[in-house]
C-alpha cells in the first residue's frame, strides 16, 4: 500500500515549503501588477522609451506619478523592470517587452494576467458555493467577455491562418471556394470575423448564449461592413440545425458548457456528411496524476474552480471543468456520433489541443 510519504514527489522540509509559499505570494502580487501595466498602457509606453524617471513615464502615459512610481517599485523588485538608483531611471529590456506588450501578441503574457483579477472578483461567491453547492453564473464575472476577446485574439486569431487552419488538409481551399461555417460559443466573434474578412465566398454564423457578447460581435461585424456573417443568441445545448454546415468550430468553448454531451450531439447533427468539426480545447489529461508535470497544471485547476466548472454548475450542468481531459473528450465525441478524432498540438502552444473530427460512418 502506498504511504503518504511515497506519494510525495519530493521529501521537502517545512522550511523549503515555506520558501515556495513566499514565491507564490510574490508571484501573485506580480501577476496583478503585470495586468495593471497592460490595462494602463504602461508596458506599451515603456517599450518605446529610453531609460526614464517615474515623472517622465507618468507624463508619457498620462497617469498619476505616485501610482506609477509605486507600480515601478513592484516591477523593479520583481526583476521585470531595470533601475539605475543614481539617475532614478527605469527601463524595460527588449527581451521582456516582447512578452508584455500588445506589439508582442500573440505572446503578450501581461494580457493573460488579467484573469487573476477577473477570477478574484467572484472569490466570495465561489467560497459560498463550496459551502452550499451550485455555481456562479457567467454574468457575475466582471470584464469576462472583454478579457476573453483579448485571449481569443492571442490564442486563436493570432495563429488562425498560419497554424490552426492548416491542421485540416484542404480546409483553406474549401473556405476560399465557399462553405457554410458555424462557431459554437463564439463570444465576441473575433475568430469568425477574421475568417469572414479573409474568405468572402464563405458564410459564417456565430452562436453564444451571452447577449452582451453577441451584441459586441454584431457591432464589430457591422463596422467592418461584412455581409457574409451573422451572430445569434443561442444555447448550444438547444440548437436544432440539421445537416447544415461544412465546418463547425468551437474554440475553448465545450468544457464549460452546462451539458457538453448535448452540445456535441447537436454539433454532430448540424454537420453535413463529409464536414469537419474543429474543436480547440485545453491540453490536459482526465486524470489528475497525469497532470502533475503539466506546465500550467495549478492554473488549469484554479481557472476551473473559479470559472469553467462553476459556470457549468450554475446552470445545473455537469461541471466537467477545464481539465476534463483528452480521454473524456474523445469518449464524449464518440458518444455524440463522431469517429475517433485526430488530436494535434502546435509546438508553440502549451495550452491547447486541436481535435479534428468527422461523423462516424
TrEMBL record:
<dbReference type="InterPro" id="IPR036390">
    <property type="entry name" value="WH_DNA-bd_sf"/>
</dbReference>
<keyword id="KW-0808">Transferase</keyword>
<dbReference type="InterPro" id="IPR048711">
    <property type="entry name" value="WHD_Rv2258c"/>
</dbReference>
<dbReference type="InterPro" id="IPR053173">
    <property type="entry name" value="SAM-binding_MTase"/>
</dbReference>
<dbReference type="InterPro" id="IPR020803">
    <property type="entry name" value="MeTfrase_dom"/>
</dbReference>
<dbReference type="Pfam" id="PF21320">
    <property type="entry name" value="WHD_Rv2258c"/>
</dbReference>
<dbReference type="InterPro" id="IPR025714">
    <property type="entry name" value="Methyltranfer_dom"/>
</dbReference>
<dbReference type="InterPro" id="IPR036388">
    <property type="entry name" value="WH-like_DNA-bd_sf"/>
</dbReference>
<feature type="domain" description="Polyketide synthase-like methyltransferase">
    <location>
        <begin position="144"/>
        <end position="356"/>
    </location>
</feature>
<dbReference type="Pfam" id="PF13847">
    <property type="entry name" value="Methyltransf_31"/>
</dbReference>
<dbReference type="InterPro" id="IPR029063">
    <property type="entry name" value="SAM-dependent_MTases_sf"/>
</dbReference>
<protein>
    <submittedName>
        <fullName>Methyltransferase type 11</fullName>
    </submittedName>
</protein>
<dbReference type="GO" id="GO:0008168">
    <property type="term" value="F:methyltransferase activity"/>
</dbReference>
<keyword id="KW-0489">Methyltransferase</keyword>
<dbReference type="GO" id="GO:0032259">
    <property type="term" value="P:methylation"/>
</dbReference>
